[in-house]
Amino acid sequence: MKWFQSLKWKLLILFFIVSYMPLMIFSTVVLDRMETYFVSQKEKDLLSKANRIAVEIKEENYLTSEEKYNSFTALIQNRSSENDMNCRILVVNDNGIVVADSSYVALNKTVMSPLVLSALNTTSNEGVEKDSENPILTAAVSVVDRENKDIIQGAVILSANIQTVYEPVKEMRNQVYIIALIVGLIVAVLSFVTASFITKPLKSLMKVVQKMTMGQMEQKVEVVGKDEIAELGNAFNHMVEQLQRVEQSRQEFVSNVSHELKTPLSSIKVLTESLIFQENVPVEMYQEFFEDINSEVDRLNNIITDLLTLVRLDQREIPLNITNIDVNEMTQNILKTSYSTCKT
To answer: Which domains, ranges and CATH numbers included, belong to the chain?
Structure first.
């Protein structure tokens, strides 16, 4: 899974999610609203048709007049065969018995569904019910007496298949999902290409850093543009320049320290060789040379102390301790040491 840790792949996945998920959520909400709207329009249409048939039944008193039964069934058949109807029509009396059925399947059967009972109730004279398992929408409207509206003579029930409502929405949903997937993939590819341009200078910077860790301090990054990546490159190049200055100062410091340490050591070596290779050396000369050697040792000790002080100063561990020095005394000591060395 090393590839997943790459910035390019992280950006690809991020942009894919950012582009695909909102589009999916938005399209789902919109399509659900469309489906609800179409079903609601179908409910209103069924109720309108049921109310129209109920009014016709009421005006002709079909439910109370047996002489008009043939005209009544003919009306139901005519209405069910109309082009804009596309539904099954049932008419029940006040006892819930089917007295007319456009499909002749439920004649003389009792229908006592909650929707029909609601329609036969004076307090609620119409309603719509959707089957939870099948795409069937049912509307029921009360048929009231023409003279007394408080008397319920029966109900008109319309059942319609609303698969034609769901199919276009389902087709649109599939198309939207495909479009969302394509858009997400296009955005992901574009983000991958864009991430390649972003990570390219970062990879160059990483290679330079790796070379610097191997001691190649002269490395620099090629800066292109003026964006944040370019600012990072400029800051890195500035850091490299500072490191080069520090390295140069370090080398000069080592050279100066070597020189400072070499001088008293050379003096000590010359003085000791003089005592070793000379014969019949007076005691006074021994005494003088030993004093000079002791002075050079003290000088070495002072140099080492100064070096330690410089290290602590660089680490900001101790404050400066400034004192007055007798320049004449220091000059005499230097001349005395040089005279002894030259004399030898």
So the answer is: 2-171 (3.30.450.20), 229-343 (1.10.287.130)
